[in-house]
Each structure stands twice: as C-alpha cells, then as structure tokens.
Specification:
This protein is α/β, with parallel strands linked by helices. It contains 24 helices and 28 strands. Among the domains are: 53 residues, Phosphorylase Kinase, domain 1 (2-Layer Sandwich), CATH 3.30.200; 137 residues, Barwin-like endoglucanases (Beta Barrel), CATH 2.40.40.20.
Length: 733
C-alpha cells in the first residue's frame, strides 16, 4: 500500500490547527502541522498527537455495553436501543418530561455530527433540565453578548494580528492557544505585536506562561477583577477619554453607565485588587494612547463569582475606547456558515424559566450545572430521575463533584453517549459509543465564529468505521425514532424531520449552510458561489480574509442599539458592593442584605484557590493518551514560596487542602510565580475511581480540584460555576 497524506482540522481544542496526517492502509505514520493551513500555518500543539491515541486506544468502546449484576456486558445495537427506549420512556411517562436531565460535555461542540443531529433529539425530549459545560466556563460571555448586542453568539474576538496593545486578563493563551479566541501559534502572534513595537500586559494572580513573554505583568487578587474594570471605566469618564468611534450613534445608556461606575475610583479599589492606583491609571492611559488596543479576558475571570459583571465591563471598556468592531480591537467574525445571521432574535434567551430548587435563571436554554445535584437529590415534582450524558465527564469537571457522584448513584436510569467508561459513564445503564474524530467528517460550526481570521475548511473522515459500528448521525437518528412523541401529527413531523436529515446527510447540511451563507454568492472570493464541492477542492482550507467591521448591521437588539448598562448588570453591582463589606456604590445596605453574598470565614480559610491549565491536556478526556500524561506530573499544587515557608512546608511535600465542601491531598511546589495568599491546582484530574476502564488515566490519576470547588458558590447572575477564588485552608501532612 502507498503512503497517503490526509489534511484535516484538529478538533481537540479551540485552536483549529491544520494537520497533515500520513497513513498507510489503516495505520497512522505521522501527524504534523499543515504548513498550508491559512490559520495555523504549520503550528500544532502536543494534543494533536492524541488523535492517533484515541483511534488506537484499547480501552475505547466500539460496541454498546450494558451494566449488569456481573459487570459490563457487550450487547447488540438493537438490544441497546430497546433498553434505552424502555428506560427513557419510563422516566418521562412516570415522572414527567423534566424528570429526564441532559448534560453535554465540551467535545460535543467540536463534533460536527453531534451538533447537526444531536440538537434534534434533545429538543424532542422537551425537558427543561438541560446542562452543558458552558455553565462551567463561559456562560457570562454569552449573557453579556446577548444583553449588549442582542445575540448570545455575538462574541467579540481580539483582532490579535493587527493590535498594538493587548491586555490579557485572567487568560493564558500561550497554553490554551486562545479560548473564545481560536488562535493557533499564539507565540508567533504575540511576538508579532512586539515586533510592531506594540505591548502586551497580563493581569493574573499567577505569573503565567503568557506573562513570561509579556512586557508587563500585574498580580491581581482572585475575584476582584470587576472592581479593577469599574475603576478603569470610571477613569475614562473622569479624564474625558470616552471615544466610541463609529459606534457613537449606536450606543445607549451612556449616562446610566457613568452613574453606575462613578463610585469606583482607582484609589478605592487598589487595596482590594492588589494593584496600585497609579498602575491602574497608567494602564488606561497607555491603552487609550495606543494606535490600536484590545482588552481580552477569559476563563480566569469567567469562572469567579462576578464573571458576568467582568465580561460586561470588558465589552464596555473596549467599546468606550473605540476598540469595538474596529481593526486591532475586539471584532466579530464572518464565518462561511453563519449561526448568528442578521435576523433579530425574538426576545432574550434569559430567565424565561427558572430551576426548581435554587431558582437559577435559564440562559440560552440551559440551567447551570452547579445546581444539577440539587435537582437530582431534592424530592418533589420535577425531580430528575434519569440522565443522558454525551461526551462529558461532569463528575470530574463540575463543582463539588463528591455530591454530584452521590446524586448520580441514585438515578433510576442513565444513558451515556461516549466511547469511554469513565468517572461519569460508570453510572450509566447503557453506553452507546460514537466513532473517534478520525472516523467522521469535520467542519467547525462553532469555532469559525471565534477565530482570529475568517477561514473555512471541510475534512472528510480519514478512516472508515469498523463493521457493526454506528456513526453519530445514525445514533441520534435512531434515538429520535425510538423516542418519537405520541400523537399522529407529532409522529409525522418526527418522521419527516428524520427523513430530511437522513436524505441530506452531513455533507448535504454543510453544503446547504455554505450556499446560504455570506460567501455563497460572494464576489469577495476568487471562488464565487461557495459550496461544499468547491470547498473540498481546497483540503488545506480557504482564507476568507481579515476580520471586518460588521456593526451596526449586526447589532441585533430590538432597538438596534448597543446597551451599555443593562438592568441585570446594574442590579448585580449591589452584590459586588456587599462582598467587599462597603457600600461602594452608595446603595442601600438593607437592599444589598436582602440577597446576601456567599461568605466564608477568611480566618478559617485564608487562601484563595485558582485553576491552571497544561498544554498537554484538555480537561479530563485526553488523559488516556500516554504521550500526554508521561513525564513530570502535571497535577501538583503551586503556592507562593513565602507562604510555603510560613506554613513550615517545602516543595515536594504532601499537603492537605480543605474547603467548605471537601478536602484532598496533593504535592506542593513553591514558586514566586504565584501571588501570596493564592494556591493553584489544575482542573480535570482525579481518575483512579473504581469501575472505570481507562488504564493510562488511572495510572496517572492526580486529584480532583472539584472536590474543593463549591456548588453553592456561583456567579449568582447566571449560576455559572466558580472555579477561581474558592476559599481554602492548607496544612502539611
């Protein structure tokens, strides 16, 4: 057999790196970066090699399995679907539609067929109890986009390739390659800013890998970012630095915003943020004096208790300095398949209904996963009795996972769509395994909306599926069929929908999306009337150009204005004031106390916990790839060296870390890269649980930081999980 080269997009994280995979028969010979890919230009990170490991993994399921008294048993697809039908129907018939919960993990949005076919099935279930990994790390971004711009997917992206001054708040793109900023080869892109005589500033409780190549770093106390941003916006007003550029005529509530931020002065917030007032003011001055500037914030600030306020204020600051929808600032993509479009949504997808126990608002059709255990464990009408999980591991990746494990152990029926028996799927009655990424076609429906450059690319499946396996499309179409609603009209609609989806197929749907998209009849491209056939002729992908201005046409609020001071954020400022034990905004103390903030005794729990990411991993699901977990252990705690000395500890020592909800033992490393009073533990570990079948992951188990994170400690506005700023105490063993 001859050696063949296959080109595709890596879909293991958000970066969308282009790959060149050399194969002979069914064997992978090499995986390298595709130098002709218009976005990544030959760059790949270590995770790309895990595509081979996933394909060759002996622990991976290829046939359905059922839990029995004697352990897991391989069964036929027909038997599996029969059991699923019986189990799911019984739950909803006996207890109601909402008694069935759904959780979708991060890999779902990296999976074309899961995106195209899964939504039809989950919508058909008509349960309000829907949860995804979105509420673990990014729900505040979507709320800010929706309330300010009119659509939850109008997420502004840093125009990193043209900026001259980049402030990076609570993000570490040198490790992530960008998050909500698909930006492969980030080192080159950041270095290019400096070659243009620009400047990079990082603001973080940790001196990160990105900080090491930045021009300036500012340490900030975890959870205080909203105060910093309020002072920065206030400074703009006080020094007459407001300049919203071409969007001036399209903004509203400017005076209301000025009133909201007026109490927050740099001198007032400096003691709470840990950043000197002069440093705050100089930062704003330098930003405003730069020719092109952008403020980018990500998971470090999205996952603390004021994450929604932070994301609102990041948008506000970029806008009021003329760096929104402007070259070198925050811009919006124009993908070939546009999930946003130009049609205004009918109302806000927020707080249309509320969770049963904690009354958290729905946001874009889902509840926060931090309250999932409440909904399972609390008796009463609407109690979750059954679950469906797909490509997710919430028992490792969500707050207070000890309590969630207790909840899952009491479910009456559970279906998992996954190819691993992991910490979550071990609770399932039936597991339906989908193919690996290399056995299915790929097109990035979501991440083309988040890329720093407009590109488009379609990847055929590299390998054919083993005989007897089903594609994700086939799995979801079958699930739609067996869970068809009752009633003649409903059944007919269900049948027609499935027939159309099957007739179009995955490629047909993508072709339809391309033809109806902004480049389907575009004269901007050398290729006119873009469709799938033409796109396939470009296996490396097509460069659609730099990000371009798209406002005011794409402002999708009902009045066509950008809202600077939505009521939801204005109200949430009261909670911020109360948290810092003062009426900074001069609101009524009694009014603030009506909704008390989450409080933990700082003397008992004197340290604040933050997360950390490793370039070799992506949450928990790649830990069964040996080449990504070998070498120096990634799951260790990092603390400021003086704090370690003061506690009488030493590097390499086993310590106990304890929060309100749990404790764990972990090795500590002393470093000057962490500010005093902070401890950093990476997210996604904690394998080695009984009844799991992931040999490599279990041999490199680590500990789960989510034994410490608290399901009662959330961003109250959205219910988004808090992974940063959790109060803990530390002691030696």
């Amino acid at each position: 057999m001859s050696i063949k080269s296959h080109y595709r997009t890596c879909n293991l994280c958000e970066a969308m790196c282009g790959l060149k995979i050399e194969v002979e028969d069914q064997k992978i010979l090499s995986i390298r970066g595709d130098k002709q890919d218009p976005l990544s230009q030959g760059h790949i990170c270590p995770k790309a090699l895990a595509l081979q490991d996933l394909f060759e993994d002996q622990d991976r399921l290829t046939q359905p399995v059922m839990k029995t008294a004697d352990g897991w048993k391989t069964i036929s697809w027909d038997k599996a679907f029969s059991e699923v039908k019986q189990g799911l129907k019984k739950i909803q018939t006996t207890y109601g539609k909402d008694a069935l919960g759904v959780y979708l993990g991060n890999p779902s949005v990296h999976n074309l067929e899961a995106m195209l076919y899964g939504s039809g099935f989950y919508n058909q279930l008509k349960t309000k109890n829907r949860y995804t990994a979105t509420s673990v790390d990014q729900l505040p971004h979507h709320l800010a986009a929706m309330l300010m711009f009119g659509h939850p997917l109008l997420l502004p992206i840093p125009d990193i390739d043209r900026t001259a001054y980049m402030v990076i708040l609570g993000a570490n793109p040198m490790v992530s390659n960008g998050s909500l900023m698909s930006s492969p080869n980030i080192r080159q892109r950041l270095k290019a800013i400096q070659k243009r005589e620009g400047k990079i500033v990082t603001i973080d409780p940790r001196f990160t890998e990105t900080s090491k190549i930045a021009d300036q770093h500012l340490f900030i106390a975890p959870g205080s970012d909203a105060l910093l941003l309020l002072a920065m916006v206030n400074y703009l007003f006080n020094k007459n630095l407001i300049n919203s550029g071409h969007l001036t005529a399209y903004i509203s509530e400017l005076e209301a915003l000025k009133h909201l931020v007026s109490p927050y002065h740099s001198k007032n917030v400096a003691p709470m943020t840990g950043i000197e007032a002069t440093d705050i003011e100089n930062l704003v001055e330098d930003f405003c004096n730069a020719k092109r500037a952008v403020l980018y914030a990500r998971i470090g600030v999205s996952t603390h208790e004021f994450g929604s306020l932070v994301n609102w204020l990041v948008n506000v600051f970029n806008l009021l300095t003329g760096n929104m929808d402007s070259a070198g600032g925050m811009m919006f993509t124009q993908p070939a398949i546009d999930l946003v479009g130009f049609k205004k949504p009918k109302g806000k997808k927020f707080a249309r209904y509320f969770s049963r126990v904690k009354k958290f608002p729905e946001t874009i059709g889902e509840f926060p996963v931090a309250t999932l255990a409440d909904e399972i464990l609390t008796p009463g009408p609407g109690q979750i009795k059954g679950m469906i999980t797909a490509a997710g591991n919430p028992l490792l990746s969500t707050p207070n996972n000890t309590r969630l494990a207790e909840a899952f152990s009491g479910l009456e029926f559970m279906l998992s769509i996954d190819f691993y028996i992991n910490e979550t799927t071990r609770h399932a009655n039936i597991i339906l395994p989908p193919p690996t990424p290399l056995e299915r076609p790929h097109y990035d429906l979501v991440f083309n909306h988040l890329a720093v450059r407009n590109i488009t690319k379609y990847s055929e499946a590299l390998f054919s599926r083993p005989k007897g396996s089903l594609s994700e499309a086939e799995i979801y179409l079958k699930l739609m069929k067996i869970m068809s609603p009752s009633g003649v009209k409903a059944k007919l609609k269900n049948s027609i929908t499935r027939l159309v989806m099957k007739w179009l197929g995955t490629s047909g749907m993508i072709n339809k999306g391309l033809k109806s998209g902004p480049y389907g009849k575009s004269s901007k491209l050398a290729i006119k009337n873009l469709n799938l056939k033409k796109l396939k002729q470009h296996p490396h992908g097509l460069d659609l150009g730099e990000l371009e201005c798209c406002f005011p046409q794409k402002i999708l609020t009902t009045d066509g204005k950008i809202h600077l001071a939505p009521e939801e954020f204005a109200t949430d400022l009261k909670r911020l004031d109360q948290k810092y034990h003062r009426s900074i905004s001069k609101k009524s103390v009694e009014e603030a106390q009506a909704d008390p903030a989450y409080e933990i005794d700082a003397k008992t729990y004197p340290f604040l916990l933050i997360g950390r990411r490793d370039s070799r991993t992506c949450n928990s699901w790649l830990h069964n790839a040996y080449r990504l977990v070998k070498g120096k252990a990634a799951c260790i705690a990092q603390m400021n060296d003086k704090d370690v000395d003061d506690l009488g500890l030493r590097t390499g020592q086993q310590i106990v870390v304890e929060s309100r909800v749990g404790k764990l033992e972990i090795i500590v490393e002393a470093t000057s890269d962490i500010m005093s009073g902070v401890i950093s533990i990476p997210h996604g570990w904690g394998h080695g649980v009984e009844q799991t079948q992931m040999a490599i992951a279990n041999a490199h188990a680590g500990v789960s930081v989510n034994q410490l994170t608290d399901d009662q400690f959330v961003d109250q506005l959205t219910g988004n999980a808090v992974l940063n700023g959790v109060a803990v105490k530390v002691s030696g063993l």
